[in-house]
C-alpha cells in the first residue's frame, strides 16, 4: 500500500474555489495535530427538512508508521473535531482516502479489515456504498525517458500513435482566454455529447468544464518559474482535414498530471486519434515537470463482459502501473438521517445501473 500518487489536486485551494462556484461550500479545517484539510459541504432539501453532507477528497494521508487502527480512528476524530464548523444538519462526513493498492485482493482485504476494526473498536466508521472518486486507475511514470515510456507500451499502441501522425491527424492544445478558445470548446462539447449518446456517459453542463479551464488560465496569467507553477488545465483536440475527431481535458501540477475528461466522434475512428492525443498530453506533462500521469478511472479488472472493457484496454495499454483505491468511508454524525440517505443512495445507484442503462440498451 502506498500513498504517493495522484489526485491530490482535489485538496487544492483551486479545486475548492471551483467547486464552490458550482453548488458546494468550501472551507479549510485544521483539527488539532492535523494539516489543514479542504472540506466541501452541500445542503439539499428533503421536502420536509434540509440536510447537508461533508466531503473530504483525497485526505488525510497515512502517516509514516501509522497502523490501520490508528488511521481509521483518526478519521473519526477529525470528523468530530470539524463538526462545529459544519452546518448543524450535516448527516455525515465522507472521506476519499489516498490509499493505493497494487492488487484488488489487497484492496478488498483492507476494506474487510476496516469494517472489522470499526465493529471491534466501536468506531462510527462505515464503508460507503458509493465511491466519489474512481477507485481504479493506471499511473504512468513520467520520470522515465520518452523512449522508455514508448517501449513500455503495448506494441499496438506505439503503432497507433505513429499511424495517426502518418495519416495527418493534428493535435492542438488550447487554454481559456485565447482568441479562439470558445469556438474550440464548442467543438469539444459537441464530441462530448456524441460520446454520451453512444456510450451512456453522464456529464455536467457545458459551463462546468468551460469554467474549469478558464479559471486555470486566469490563475496562470503572468506566472513564471518552477516555484510559481499553478494547476494548468488544458483542452486538446485532434483534427483531420477539417474534421474534429476527439478531445481531452488534462490537468498538470508539480506533483501529478491527470487525464480528466475525454470525448470522441463517430467519424474516421480508424485514424486512431485518441492514441496521438494521449501521447501528446503525456509529452507535454513530462515537459511541464509532472512526475506521473494518472489516467483516472477504469474498470477494476480485464473483464471482457464489463461494459467499459474497452476503456480498461485503452488506458492500461500505455504501460502504466495499475492501482486500486478503497473507495469512500463515512463517519455518520446523525445516524438516523444517515441510514435514510444511504438507502436512497443505494436505490438511486441500482436504478441507474440496472434500469436506465438497460432501457438505453447498455
Report on this model:
This protein has helices at about 15-20, 70-80, 105-120, 145-150, 155-165, 180-200, 205-220, 275-290, 310-315, 335-360; strands at about 25-30, 35-45, 50-55, 90-95, 125, 135-140, 170-175, 230-240, 245-250, 255-265, 290-295, 320-325, 330. The strands form two sheets. A seven-stranded mixed beta sheet has the order 7-8-9-10-11-6-12, sandwiched between helices. Strands 1-2-3-4-13-5 form a six-stranded mixed beta sheet. Helix 5 crosses helix 8. It has about 350 residues and is of the alpha+beta class. The mean pLDDT is about 90.
- SSE pattern, N- to C-terminal: HEEEHEHEEHHEHHEEEHEHEEH
Number of helices: 10
Uncertain segments of ≥5 residues (pLDDT<50)? none
User: Beta fraction of the residues?
Assistant: 15-25%
**Mean of the pLDDT scores?**
91
Question: Judging from the principal axes of the Cα atoms, what is the shape?
Answer: globular
Rg is 21 Å
Measured as a percent range, the helix fraction is 25-40%
Terminus-to-terminus distance: 35 Å
The helix/strand class is alpha+beta
**Major β-sheet strand ordering:** 7-8-9-10-11-6-12
User: Could you tell me the number of beta strands?
Assistant: 13
Largest sheet: 7 strands, mixed
Question: Care to give the gist of this entry?
Answer:
The chain is α+β, with helices and mostly antiparallel strands. 39% of the residues lie in helices and 22% in strands.
Which tags fit this structure?
single chain, 362 residues, alpha+beta, 7-stranded mixed β-sheet, 6-stranded mixed β-sheet, 13 strands
